[in-house]
Specification:
Shape: flat
Strand content: under 5%
Order of helices and strands: HHHHHHHHHHHHHHHHHH
Helix content: 55-70%
Structural class: mainly alpha
Pfam families: DUF6589 (PF20231)
Distance between the termini: 55 Å
Biased composition (Polar residues): 274-285
Biased composition (Basic and acidic residues): 310-325
InterPro entries: DUF6589
Radius of gyration: 31 Å
Domain DUF6589: 2-203
Length: 351
């Protein structure tokens, strides 16, 4: 597989080309540039909503499948790509803007899609368990979890204000991350006051307009967003899996029932025949009944203890956390003191 960064950029360029072509197809025009010169904001919004419903949703795929007996697999696969890539674009934008509710919405969809071909069941289960815990958390705990889930300060704490060499420590990280918003605002204030350019052009991302235009032109020439009967290549192109539809069908299977509904039945252990068998000369070569009784009772007692321990909850304490060199359980007071100092410097008084 290619690196994530390369794949990410390709998806963004490809998605932009697909969006251009579906807008052109929806409007029935040859040039979006000419149309954009006269369109109003309200009309633009209506066109975008209609385009999304007709080319980026499961309902759009179902409509095409229902309308035509002879399926255009290449067209259907293009619509499936639109459906999947727009979810990824939404996820990236939600993270960039720090909108955790949109992130959760995408995770709900991905949880279902990851069950589509059952290639990533552990990821699906992990998301399911996390979302289930969030649903059952008290409101305060859920809000705290969501507010701290997105790592907003990764760039600022690990790149801009990161200490170098031996100065890099948890103490420094705890102190600087509590001040990032104040330091960032101060930096922006200075840049605005003295008209300092935030960054140069040395590492500017190159324009992708030409690449996006090439993608849109290819889609237009091949008419991939239009149903074409007897399209060339359909005979050797099979339909790709609709991960969303396949994932939605998974909960109705017997396998899902076995995985998510635990069997609460426990067998009742009965004493063996040897337990009640009287001691007679005929069985003198075996184990006496009295000894069998003791052995059976001891075994049952051990099994009972094991079963009780099965449901014993393991609590993690500070001693356990201290075994992890990356934990900083002893720095809580220092973090709180740094936060109080920052609050006081901003004019807040301790209540």
């Amino acid at each position: 597989m290619p690196p994530w960064k390369t794949t990410h950029e390709l998806l963004y360029v490809s998605a932009a080309g697909h969006i251009q072509d579906v807008l052109r197809t929806q409007l029935g025009v040859d040039s979006l540039t000419e149309w954009a010169k006269t369109v109003s904001q309200e009309e633009f919004t209506n066109v975008v909503e209609a385009t999304f419903n007709n080319y980026f949703t499961s309902q759009a795929i179902d409509r095409v499948l229902a309308l035509h007996e002879e399926q255009d697999n290449i067209h259907i696969n293009t619509l499936l790509y639109n459906q999947d890539v727009i979810i990824y674009i939404e996820f990236c934008d939600a993270i960039r803007t720090g909108d955790i509710e949109r992130v959760v919405n995408v995770l709900r969809v991905w949880m279902v899609m990851m069950r589509g071909e059952n290639h990533m069941p552990k990821y699906a289960d992990a998301i399911f368990e996390t979302l289930n815990r969030l649903h059952n958390y008290p409101d305060d705990l859920r809000d705290m979890f969501l507010d701290n889930w997105l790592e907003h300060q990764n760039f600022w704490g690990k790149v801009i204000f990161s200490a170098k060499g031996s100065n890099k420590s948890w103490d420094w990280m705890g102190m600087i991350t509590s001040c990032i918003f104040a330091l960032r605002d101060a930096m922006w204030t200075v840049q605005g006051a003295y008209k300092i350019t935030p960054s140069g052009t040395k590492h500017t991302v190159p324009s992708m307009i030409l690449e996006i235009s090439k993608v849109a032109t290819y889609l237009k020439e091949e008419r991939l967003h239009v149903y074409v009967k007897n399209r060339a290549g359909n005979d050797v192109t099979g339909p790709v899996t609709d991960l969303l539809a396949a994932g939605m069908a998974y909960p109705n299977t017997a396998k899902a029932f076995r995985n998510f509904v635990g069997d609460r039945r426990y067998p009742i252990r009965h004493a063996s025949a040897a337990k009640t068998q009287p001691f007679t000369p005929s069985n003198a070569g075996g184990t006496p009944a009295a000894e069998v009784d003791v052995e059976v009772e001891d075994k049952e007692e051990e099994e009972g203890e094991e079963e009780d321990n099965r449901y014993e909850r393991f609590e993690v304490d500070h001693e356990d956390l201290r075994t992890d060199p990356e934990e900083f359980v002893d720095s809580t007071d220092e973090f709180m003191a740094a936060a109080v100092d920052l609050a006081e410097s901003l004019g807040y008084e301790e209540v």
